[in-house]
Amino acid sequence: MIKCIVIDDEESAINTITEFIENVPKLNLIDFFTNPMEALSYLKKINDIDLVFMDVDMPLISGIKLAELTRN
After folding, report:
1. What are the φ and ψ backbone dihedral angles of 4, each rounded to 5 degrees?
2. Collapsed DSSP state (helix, strand, coil) of residue 8
3. Distance from first CA to last CA of the chain, Å, rounded?
4. How many domains does one find in the chain?
5. What is the b/e burial string over 32-44, where b = at least 16 CB atoms within 10 angstroms of the residue's CB?
6. Which of the chain's ends, N or C, has fewer CB atoms near its CB within 10 Å?
7. pTM exceeds cut of 0.85
8. pLDDT single digits (tens) 18-66
9. Nearest to 40 by CA among 52, 28, 57, 30
């Protein structure tokens, strides 16, 4: 199973991506976040997430910057 999370400030986008994940047998949704800073904190604690679905345009921090901060 591929463990994944969703990070998006829009609930409707999270719902759409969640539906997609539910229809792909090898994907396992672990959690979702509307606040990118909460997601960053989570990702710093949890190291076994395989895939992140992330919005690029979010308040507080862009998805691009968030991706840079999550890399080891």
Report:
1. -135, 160
2. coil
3. 22
4. 1
5. bbbebeebbebbe
6. C
7. yes
8. 999 999 999 999 999 999 999 999 998 988 899 999 999 998 899 999 9
9. 52
Q: Give, in order, the Cα–Cα distances in Å from 26 to each of 16, 32, 51.
A: 17, 17, 12
User: How many C-beta neighbours within 10 Å does residue 45 have?
Assistant: 6
Domain residues for the domain of 27 are 2-70
Hey, how many other C-beta atoms are within 10 angstroms of the C-beta on 3? 14
pLDDT at 72: 58
What is the predicted pLDDT for the residue at 70? 83
Return the CATH number at 54: 3.40.50.2300
